[in-house]
User: Fold these one by one.
Assistant:
Number 1:
Amino acid sequence: MAALDDVQVKEGVDQETVEAVQSVGGKYKYGFETDIEIEYAPKGLNEDIVRLISEKNNEPEWMLEWRLSAYRRWLQMEEPDWAMVDYPEIDFQDQYYYARPKSMAEKPKSLDEVDPKLLETYAKLGIPLKEQALLAGVEAPEGDRRVAVDAVFDSVSVGTTFKDELAKAGVIFCSISEAIQDHPELVKKYLGSVVPQSDNYYATLNSAVFSDGSFVYIPEGTKCPMELSTYFRINAENTGQFERTLIIADKGAYVSYLEGCTAPQRDIAQLHAAVVELVLLEDAEIKYSTVQNWFPGDEEGKGGIYNFVTKRADCRGDRSKVMWTQVETGSAVTWKYPSCILRGDDSQGEFYSIAIANNMQQADTGTKMIHLGKNTKSRIVSKGISAGKAQNTYRGLVSMHPKAQNGRNYTQCDSLLIGDKCGAHTVPYIEVKNNSARVEHEATTSKVDDEQLFYCRQRGMDEEEAVALVVNGFCKDVLQALPMEFAMEAQALVAISLEGSVG
Amino acid sequence: MSAKLKNKGVVPSITVPDGGKWATTARNAAAELLTETGLPHRRDEYWKYTDPTTLTAPEATPAAIFKSDDPLPFSGVDAVKIVFVDGIYDPSQSDALELAGVEIETLADAAQKDIHWAGSVFGVLEGRGQSPVSRPLASYNTAMAEQGFVIRATGKAAKPVSFIYLHESETSDAVIHHTIKLDEGADLTVLENGPAAARINAVMEVEVADNAAFHHVRAQGRDHERRTATHIFARLGAESSFKSFTLTVNGVLTRNDAIIEFTGDNAHATVAGACAGDGAFHHDDTVFITHDAVNCESRQVFKKVLRNGAVGVFQGKILVQPDAQKTDGYQISQGLMLDENSTFQAKPELEIYADDVACSHGSTVGAIDETALFYLTSRGIPHKEAQDMLTLAFLGEAIDEVEDDALADDLRSLLQGWMARRHG
């Protein structure tokens, strides 16, 4: 990362911070390519391609109709241009919308049948797909946590681990293509119910051409016995990845879900437009964590992933709770706002984000908290770090509807600039239509929970230390929960101090 | 394709007034820009929270005249008084345009000349303020305005210039444009008060040269049905100072834009406002501050008290350009909602391209602090009175931004009047 080496670091930004950012923004470790025979759908996008994707997944007629109606809708829509990102116009006809390793033509019945080259790829990425070894406890070091993985390679799900054990608990964890066939009633009921087909340009495109993704159903009163995760890998060239994730937590259910993403290093930018829908019924809780490390492009901004993602949680039931945690270090362009619709009374939404943009990266990310129910609470903690020539924008909405009696929101967003060629921007929208609601948006570091600060200060910490402890204490819990190798890198970020923050 | 073109608004028919070369050039440029952008509409990002329809309609919506025996704000201040009636300058009610250290001339007179110093300010600062956000109502004003003053302060003004805008016709539609220039080291205070008309579109351009100081205090008239759109465009030189404060009570629609640009180092700007709205009241403060110089300080302090369905909007932006190091930008917007029917909407934005800066913003909305209320009532203060005390204290923090104590007191008593009438 030459850009950072030349930078005159300002007084007040400590060396540890700079090093932590360097280690994350350094050479992209996941830029290798798996040499594997790929079967593509013809280039471009039209109704036939939509039909072909549906056919490849053996989908029932209703699913095809759903896709086609989304496609027709998409043709009428215009690409949004309000985000503070700048990229060359995307030629949607110059992309492959479906790419599948040839060995996956016949869906493997178990992981043993999966092409070893694919398994190798995941092993190289640090994702264990060998559950047997872990189950037997042979290779697993003591205390190693078990995580069920759904691995998505280009357009298809390669395999899902721990399926049987999860099934015993009543948990359904499979690829969405399998779910469409095996659990059509659940998919029909919930697909598109949180992010409607016509929600936005990229979500509509996704609705038409999504090829695979993960499906999770946690039955009533069940705490998912292990963490679930999906690992997305783009390998094929000129291929867009459009995955769709649907998670349903029934009454009183709990699940922690992790998501990781990487892609090879290429000169040409690639498109990734995902949709994630979370449904929470009464007393349900979902923790959704993302480590997004798509290839960010090189130092001159060549290549990289355009990451246009729609993620939304619908807290339908009373007392339900959702927590989004994201560590965004990759992608050339990020356009992503994981949101919470707090419909149920006493429901809660939380959003914790660390977004790091380096070199020529552009990130426009944040959240929306829509308070509809009584006593709903939300909390937003966002830390944006810009280095090199990157632009990092926090964009958020906090909306208190007239019926959101006693709604509460606390928002804190801090930005840190390293070097004088980058930018950090904050665009919060605050809409309050209820006087019993209380909304606070703070961008000054001194306004972290005063009581906690006071507690720390009393014990001899200086203000800077106390603030770092309070804010990072939040992130740390979640970061430590990430099983993937690069969670280590994410953790390194915790060392970043808030010095030099600009709000 | 830019958002601007995609969402282009209606283009009004414009006939630029006759005038000399400098004025015609500026008016034509503004008219041309307006032809490109069209008038604002609800789908414009910067009109998201305020519906501009009644501000852009060909005819002003009639507005009842508000009658009050209360003295006008600032009436006790010794100033050069300039009176407008329904947006037209009325010399018979005004003082002579004479003030040591200050040249005062009507826009109409100045515009007849071919060469005038105002050519370097009129439409120029407004034009600079059209990017990156277009401000079509200001373009309209520059192209069309025949009323207004050009004022040049060459030294320290002996007393303030006070504009009084009277409203006498229920259908009046005013367009006023003031052009103000402060030479190096000059010092000038401009006061404004009154509703002006059923509808007013007002623009003030202020060039503040090095070491000069400009003060602006404004009380927007109490007519319930008036509709107001104002723009202030200011450009600040090195070591200069700019302070503007606006108090608004009543008015069915008010949109105040302030566009401030720092071009010289070590300058200071404050834009502050307090408003109290009851019932049919929509108040929008939109501020855009550009730091393009080193070591400048900007403050935005906005407080809104709302009840009975009143709507308060704040859109504030601090833009720090790449070399504007040591910038200190501060922005606070707060809404106090006295009942369940009101709305507060805020968009406090930061856009920062320099690393050695301290910018912060805060925005809070909520009801009156129950703990504070309990504290006061437990000490024997009646509930209503306690509520008033807390409301006044809340708005007082914005009024504290007014440097001149006498003016600040005037503003406080206006607010107290509002409180008293509320209970009446």
Number 2:
Amino acid sequence: MEFFLQLLVNGISLGFLYALSALGFVMIFKSSSVLNFAHGELLAIGAFLFLALSTWAKLPIILAFAVTLIGSFSLGFIIERFFLRPLIGEELIEVIMLTVGLAAMFKGLLLFIFGGDIHSYPNFLPEGLSMQWGAIQIPSVYVATFIIGIIFLIIFGFFFKYSSQGIYMRSVADNQPAALSLGVHVRRVFALSWAIAALVCAMSGIVLGIINGVNVHNLSAIGLKVFPVVILGGLDSIGGAILGGVIIGLLETFTGGYISTSLREVVPYIVLVLILMVKPYGLFGLVEIERV
Amino acid sequence: MEDNIRLLINNISVVYADVIQVLKGVSLTIRKGQIVSLLGSNGAGKTTTLKAISGLLKPENGKVTEGSIEYDGEQVQNSSPEEITRKGIIQVLEGRQEFKYLTVEENLRVGTATRWGKPYQKDLELVYRYFPALLARKKSLAGYCSGGELQMLVIGRGLMAHPKLLLLDEPSLGLAPLLVKEIFQIIRKINEEQGTTLMVVEQNANMALQIAHYGYVMENGKIVMESTAQELRENPDVKEFYLGTAASGALKSYRDVKAYKRRKRWL
Amino acid sequence: MQKFQFHPCGNFKESYYQELTIFETDFGRLWMIIGLILLFGVIPFISSAFVLYVLNTMGIYAIAAIGLNLLIGYTGQISLGHGAFFGVGAYAAAILATRAHFPFWAALPAAGLITAAVGMVFGLPSARLKHLYLCIATLAGQFIIEYVLVQWEGLTGGAAGISVIGATLFGLDLGNDRTFYYVIYICFVFFAWVAVNLIRTRYGRAFIAIRDNDRAAEGMGIPIFPYKLLSFAISSFYAGFAGGLYAYYMISITPEPFNLWLSIVFIAMIIIGGLGNIPGSVFGAVFIVTLEEVLSHATEYLMNIGASTGVAITIAPLREFVFGLAIVLFIIFEPKGIAEVWRIVRSGFRLWPFSY
């Protein structure tokens, strides 16, 4: 029973971590319908930027964090401006392959600069955050993840649902010519969504780095794990992303705990295929409204 | 130059993809506070004219190669749609391009994009007053609305931008005759009450000429006829080719049918 | 004597039959014959063992890339599992050869058929999924197949892999590079011929119709789902056959090469070569294999310098960087791929020196 509860707690924490990493992905998808294969690399760039600033340049943690966020925000702008913008109006597969190419570039660069080893951050989280019930314990990083995750999810939920800018972003994803005819600044929306997404990625990357250590391969693998998470929840719903994350997290820890550790990595994909067969738009995704 | 001119199109040519010439020297004038209707058969270049005004040619690889478009005395040809919409020209696209996954109210809010950050509550109320049908459906997804509701929605969405010149592309497309009548009455009401200048592109010439002050007829990328709406309604050619009624106004009897087919005299 | 056809200076086609011809002019046919003579009569004899190895790799990848182009370029179904299907083919051939003692000539088509069946299973989601969702379902297929290849140790030998006995055909040893070159390129010519002609049949036209507008295609009476499955099957058959060749050529196989990266490399080939263009897939395969070889030599060379001068031996990742950069640059500057560049160059020659 205790084992079960510990797995449950681990699964939920892991799920939140996944949901948090999926945020940036959903962000880009929601505004520009681009499936970003460079997502894991964006996570890694944020994490490594923070690493370089906090341990190499020895900036104070808060300052390093702020500079990382600003840097990633600008990086998002740059990526959109130089790589995505020439492709506006091109076919889906070309945009997807472009992000794949970007992923390879970023990964190569990161490996070149930082190598393939696991680095770690200096310990800066307050110890008081960790919780303990009987034999079950939640380390402070997970609690911090949980809190940060909830805050960001709420902010983003409100942003997309109620703010004008959020609605413009969704309108662009929905029907680009119509948005253009109403004066929505489509290019600005794209640039902004990439910038915000890169920022969120950096933040998730830092959190992942605190928990698992900073490693190029691990972080880019998590970028792929985002797909089942997001698809389960429906590609465009943020609430769905949380639930998808938690489901995948639980699935992984329970398969790992009770069945086999090697199956753990594939289980999300198996479940993904099964769910897609039954519900093609995920559990909470919008049903595609097609009219002729 | 007269003061009350809103838009002056001076002899423009439009070419798509550097090879296909669609407009061959179109000139027209839209006066403030008027409804101007642009008639013509399919492929005459009506939609292209609208897109040339609103700047939406650009994403379709089209360009105004000659002539000029003056809006309130300012040249706007080949500007980007972002700039033009911010100057107050809003085009309502053909075929009800709603945002399927946004609710009706969110659709309307997209209309405020040109004046982001300003209050919009009053405008919502205004739109709901013109189109009460939308109020009942304001929380439902636009993708599930009927054709008539969608047409109202897209016109209302255009109104949200406080347009000085609203370009309507085929508002009657695919709607039941009664609904067409209703929508045209609302268009006239908007023109009278808000003072919005409107340009209506229509296949349904009868309806369009009833509410318009002035009309143009296009064919093969040229303006072939222009006059007040009243005169156009009475013009025998327009009657024959666009209104579908004979010179006498009643159904023709077989005895009166002339042996030759009436030719379009302007060709 | 037959009248020779030269390039007309305009589009004067009078019948659909003319539209369907593969070679517009007899010159095209002539060039193809010259190409075939070079391919089989000259190249294998003047090439060194290393060049032959590179050419063989190109041939194998080109077959798989043609298959993928049929699926993505012509039917419009994006698949991220082609690398895994290639692996399934390789394993199927290896297992059939070692366990069931299939002869070489039977193992390859059998591997193709098995892969086609697997491909159809993973094509099943296409019944209900489109675009992104299908793309991700095939991504899941990639991971699941990878997992099975590693974990089903009883059949696949796990991470250690399988060793295949060298290929023999009717008592002839195909073990060396030159003889295998013939095997690969005869298969390649055959599969390219089939693909080019497939596009001209009703099946090919149905594929294109589904790509351009599936709902309209359905309205025209094309049963979409069977055709999509057929496309998955054909494409996987190509991948499986190529995989079988790979297994025989490499002698021993492990699950490692058949990862997501290989799927991406295949897609990169057809995008760089030209989507919806059979010669394009070949160009793409040639380009990518050349690029990989050049890059791995360059990094080796740089690493040797690095070792002697003390520079850190971390240049290897740059290979990945350049690869990604090549993909990105091609997509941004020549989205229609090498096939388009080739067309422009060719028409430049045709019109030279009077280019207008």
